[in-house]
Design a protein that fits this description.
Among the domains are: 145 residues, Heat Shock Protein 90 (2-Layer Sandwich); 117 residues, Response regulator (Rossmann fold, 3-Layer(aba) Sandwich), CATH 3.40.50.2300. The protein is of the alpha/beta class. It contains 11 helices and 12 strands. It is extended. It starts with 11 loop residues before the first helix and ends in a 7-residue tail after the last helix. The longest helix has 75 residues. About 3% of the residues have low confidence.
């Protein structure tokens, strides 16, 4: 006998319930498919946005690198011409003053380019530190030396107090010098002519403490929390017309953080000056310096091959080196330079990277492939770490970024590594 409680398939109520459940399942399945479609679309959109952001970042860095290269090219002959003026006989006081202005302003422009590129490299995580023990006194001395001309030009007084010169830091000497020179340059920028700047360095709670204070325009309370942000600048009066990019302090904060330290700013407000404090961990003791057994060999002239397609850069650099009694031969393209180099007889090769015909990397590769041991210096407007690494891997011994400091170039030519490559004269 059939179970009276078992629903029959032809029961209208049961059929209606089944149809309702089926419609509900279809509706929920439709919602699920739509949700999955939206999730896929959101994932694709997010990936597209990430790809576009990375591409935009690459384009920005490439543009900044090209901008720096194009601006460094005209800076190089200006800087070299100023150095040549300094060596001219019978220099009048007026001409000497003009030369000083040219040197200071080219140096200022070069620092602006360096800060702009460093800000871009830091933001993209493409900057590395060459860490080694360095003395606090040495870093401070080099930083002061960098900014002293602009401070003197403004008639400002700089007091430097290093209370513990024996303290060491584990850090990148160049980057630490950049930190403190940026702080000093910032203090000078926002301090009136004839104002006072004080740098104090010594032991601190974290190991090393350096403060830079001034009696300048000060920092408003609403600006103070953002003073280390990129492109943030305090107000300047019309009397203080020296510009800036608003990146120097951002570079300071990032470099200090990379060294495991902190930096903060204080100010009593507009008209009450400012104070920047850097805290860094103390470093390992310095290794003992090797003893100098022999006296430095006297300066000797050498034969230099200069390959540079920018005529102004080439001619001014050639003239400067000839003033130092060096015999210089110049070529304005890669093929002509390579042909001269392959003739031999040169002690030093100074070669631009971007050349017509064949570039500087191809020039040095072909020379090294032929067994040429000439001391080779790459001279370029590109300052990215990968540009330097590529040039050294190709066979260059040194890599200098335009505008090169003339004295640094002369010291390099007269250095022991360069001397050791020279063939004895007949």
């Amino acid at each position: 006998m059939a179970d009276m409680d078992q629903p029959r398939h032809d029961d209208p109520q049961h059929v209606a319930e089944l149809r309702l459940a089926l419609r509900q399942a279809r509706f929920e399945n439709s919602l699920l498919r739509e949700a999955n479609s939206h999730l896929v679309q959101a994932t694709v959109t997010a990936q597209t946005l990430q790809d576009e952001a990375e591409a935009a970042n690459r384009r920005q860095n490439e543009f900044l690198a090209m901008l720096a290269h194009e601006l460094r090219n005209p800076l190089a002959p200006i800087s070299m011409a100023a150095a040549m003026l300094e060596r001219m006989p019978d220099m009048t006081p007026e001409l000497s003053a003009l030369r000083s202005v040219i040197s200071r302003q080219t140096g200022h422009m070069a620092r602006l380019l360096d800060d702009l590129l460093d800000a871009a490299r830091i933001s993209s995580g493409r900057i590395t530190l060459d860490v080694a023990p360095v003395t606090l006194a040495d870093v401070i001395e080099r930083a002061v030396e960098t900014v002293q001309p602009r401070i003197a030009d403004s008639g400002q007084r700089l007091d430097v107090r290093v209370t513990a010169p024996q303290l060491t830091l584990n850090g990148d000497r160049v980057r630490l010098m950049q930190v403190f020179s940026n702080l000093l340059a910032n203090a000078s920028k926002y301090t009136q002519d004839g104002g006072r700047i004080v740098l104090e360095a010594g032991a601190g709670p974290a190991g090393v403490q350096v403060t830079v204070s001034d009696n300048g325009t000060g920092i408003a309370a609403d600006v103070l929390p953002h003073i280390f942000d990129l492109f943030t600048q305090g107000p300047r009066s019309l009397a203080r017309s020296e510009g800036g990019l608003g990146v120097g302090l951002n570079v300071v904060r990032n470099l200090v953080t990379m060294h495991g330290g902190t930096v903060h700013a204080q100010s009593g407000g507009p008209g009450h000056g400012s104070r920047f404090t850097v805290e860094l961990p103390a470093g390992d003791p310095m290794p003992a310096a090797p003893e100098q057994d022999a006296a430095m060999a006297p300066h000797a002239s050498c034969r230099v091959l200069l390959i540079e397609d920018n005529v102004d850069v080439c001619d001014t650099l050639k003239g400067f080196l000839m003033l130092d009694a060096h015999d210089v031969i110049a070529a304005y393209d890669g093929n002509a330079g390579l042909a001269l180099a392959q003739e031999g007889g040169f002690d030093v090769l100074i070669c631009d990277i971007g050349l017509p015909g064949i570039d500087g990397l191809q020039v040095i590769r072909r020379l090294r492939a032929g067994g040429d041991r000439v001391f080779a210096v790459a001279l370029s407007g590109y300052s990215q770490p990968q540009d330097r690494a590529k040039a050294l891997a190709a066979g260059f011994d040194e890599y200098l970024v335009k505008p090169v400091r003339p004295d640094s170039l002369l010291e390099l030519i007269d250095s022991e590594p360069c001397r050791s490559r020279r063939s004895p004269r007949a």
